[in-house]
Amino acid sequence: MLGVAGRSTTARTDRQLDEVLTAICEPAGKPGSFGTGWLGWISYDAGRCIEPALGARRSDPDRAWPFAAFRRVDAALWFERGEWRIHGDEGLLPLEQLLAAEDGSDPGFRLGTIQSGTGRDGFLHQVERALEYIRAGDIYQVNLAHRLTCTFSGSARSLFTELVTAARPWHGGFFESESGEAICSVSPELFLEFDPATRVVSTRPMKGTRAVTGSNAAAARHDLEASAKDRAELAMIVDLMRNDLGRVCELGSVRVENERDFERHDSGVLQTTATVRGRLRQSKGLGDLLRGAFPPGSVTGAPKVRAMQIIEELEPFSRGPYCGSMIWIGDDGRMHANVLIRSACISRIGSDQQMLDYCVGAGIVSDSDPRAEWEETMVKAGILTRLRH
């Protein structure tokens, strides 16, 4: 979903994050028309405010992303019959027309040379270090990422249009700040969904990836289905998410409704997911749910806090929005939150340069092959590296 936004709110400190969560969750459950509410995102780094055991940040981030940013939405754009459309006085408009320049043209965009800040050898070394922690019994699994970066010029809206047309994401979204930063998310993964009528919370953690084309679809599925490593990776995160939901859901209500399912996405990947559901306690609200489950377990590892500490040690960058969540909270009480993966994050460096960051990661378990994990990250990067601009 996209939004036509009104007033905004941003958090750069622990206290401000609490204020933002209070503000955006307060309208939940009150009468309101479909398509009005709050749209925004919470940074992975905000997990430091929610999990005090992480301690002080290792170093200052090299990007000036806040912990969270939300904007009030007065009209909404949603995916309908295979197209992104807006419903309002103008009727139904295609996404390309909605995001075009005032003169109706596509302003376009340009990407510089895409490079990994870590590099292949650096990433392989990080995986080896993670495997040492696993063998020592510190963790069972950790999600490690590297950051692809390039210069960016032009329109973030044009970039999102091209990405979303190619990927047709299940849980994508676009957010643009008043100062020009933007997040173009083509995420395939659901973090949290809340239905106020039933108070049911759903999460669909995703683990296991294969590149897929028309000619190798059956072989890719067979390979993924037979992989004990990928099955174990997903099972660990399912347990983690069950525990996270158990913090705020009614006793005995948390259930694994689907242990393993296969999803083929237009971005060129086959994924395995699971579905976990529970019923939010009457005494708990959406702020409690977000604090109880954030950041998403599929992009941290297990146990969560120790995995986050190891991520902090091994990754030479602050994740910012990556592996956080883009969130819609409607005035009707509904919430839909994705996992901010497969997301291009555009920020300003200095006064006149824009940089595009696109992070890609892989779940590391005891039998991980470092080279195969690197290849998996590059499969996930394909949606960006195939762009024509």
Protein model, in words:
- The protein has a single domain (2-385), classed as Anthranilate synthase, CATH 3.60.120.
- Helix content is 29%, strand content 35%.
- The protein is built from 11 helices and 20 strands.
- Helix 4 (119-135) packs across helix 10.
- The longest helix is centred in the middle third of the chain and has 19 residues, at 228-246.
- The relative contact order is 0.20.
- The model is unreliable at 87-91 (pLDDT under 50).
Task: Please give a handful of descriptors for the protein shown.
8-stranded antiparallel sheet, 12-stranded antiparallel sheet, 389 residues, Anthranilate synthase, alpha+beta, globular, 35% strand, 29% helix
Low-confidence stretches: 87-91
Structural domains: how many? 1
SS field, number of helical segments: 11
Per the principal axes of the C-alpha atoms, what is the gross shape? globular
The CATH class is identified as Alpha Beta
- CATH fold-level label: Anthranilate synthase
Give the second-level CATH assignment, the architecture: 4-Layer Sandwich
Biggest β-sheet description: 12 strands, antiparallel
The rounded distance between the terminal residues' Cα atoms is 25 Å
Q: Which structural class is indicated by helix and strand composition? A: alpha+beta
CATH superfamily: Anthranilate synthase
The number of strands is 20
Work out the radius of gyration: 20 Å
Mean pLDDT, all residues: 87
In which range does the helix fraction lie?
A: 25-40%
Q: Strand-residue fraction? A: 25-35%
